[in-house]
Amino acid sequence: MNVLLLHTKKKVLPDHVREELEQDHLTVITEHGHVQRYGPEVDVRLVESLAHLDEVRAECTRVLEERRLDAVFAPFEHGQQAAGHLRSYFGIPGTGFDTANAFSNKYVMKQRLADGGLPVTDFHLLPGLDAVPGIARTTGWPVVVKPLLGGGSHHVHVLRGPEHYERFRRSQEAAGLAALTVPLVAERFVPMRAEHHLDGVVHDGDVVFAVGSRYLEPVLERSAGFGSCVLPDAHPVNAALRALHAEAVRSLGLRDGVTHMEFFETDDGLVVGEIACRPAGGGIPEALRLHTGVDVWRAALRASCGRPYDATARTRDGVVAHVYLPLRPGRIVKQTPAAALEALPSVVKVEMLHGPGETVRGPLGSASASALVYLRVGTPDEAGPAVRRVCEAYEIDVAEDEAGSLR
Fold this sequence. Notes:
Blueprint: E1 2-7, H1 15-21, E2 25-31, E3 43-47, H2 53-64, E4 71-73, H3 80-90, H4 97-104, H5 106-115, E5 123-126, H6 132-139, E6 143-147, E7 157-159, H7 162-169, H8 172-178, E8 184-188, E9 194-203, E10 206-215, E11 227-230, H9 238-252, E12 257-266, E13 269-276, H10 284-292, H11 296-304, E14 319-325, E15 330-335, H12 338-342, E16 347-352, E17 359-360, E18 371-377, H13 383-393, E19 396-399
Parallel strand pairs: 1-2, 1-4, 2-3
Antiparallel strand pairs: 5-8, 6-7, 6-8, 9-10, 9-12, 10-11, 11-14, 12-13, 14-18, 15-17, 15-19, 16-18
């Protein structure tokens, strides 16, 4: 099979996914400065940005002059639009542009979800930051401002009120938001009691795997101890999460693939945040694998290639939680070793993502971490204390340069 992989420059595939891909005739279109490394037989082609659909299409045309393409695999958020465009334009099997756009364009997504009867917060297409006060007169403060396309909480800002908005307008963060080449979306902020996510697998239009989890704290309020915990099947909120997820899949038109969907739990019930048609970031896929035996990375790859995959959940006793240990830009001087974390109660696995001597550069997203720690506990209520033990035991020191700024 001839597979085209659309890969962003800053992401790295799990080894087992890359190895399975390289068993096919693999062509990669990625960006200059990419960090992923491929085998010697892989045909790697460079573009300035996967967001430039004309450029990606032109490179794909050159590939098609040499060989046919049987499948396109886009494992990350940045690349969904291009993958859908190529499939629709060249008649390659898989999720076409209309569905890929609905899962990645946050304004179109909210329109489709609202039209499908799902509960979403007030949302508006934002012509520019100057329009925020006018929109706030309709939605009320706080207002969440985000790019139309994007992931990992990059450039997502909560503006608390008129004074906060004015300070933000003068900040470097506002300059970075204004420099983006995509429109913005403004949403009414949702006060919440908890934030949840559900990760699913869809085959031939049917949801064949759906597991709900609760974030240890809301994503936009993340601090030390950020992560999530899988919910037991019988947990009261699970049925509602699954029902809303099934309606979202239907409304947006996904036939085959994996999903990651987020929800806000409010005093009045669940509100739908967003849904993506790719594996979740950070430690969520591994937490799901440890809890159910299902590998959503492998399911995503095989769905893109039209191959069968097993999404039968086989849960064990207890529930799996995971925590993202702190990371900030700069040179790591020292950190607690993996062995010390593995010796803590409830810990079942530790992934060290960065180590002493390494320089970490920003910007960092919601899934950025120096290490990921996975724990097995009896109930979700036990996850918080177990995670706090890990955070209290973990230390990381990051150096500053002579000017006092992190690098």
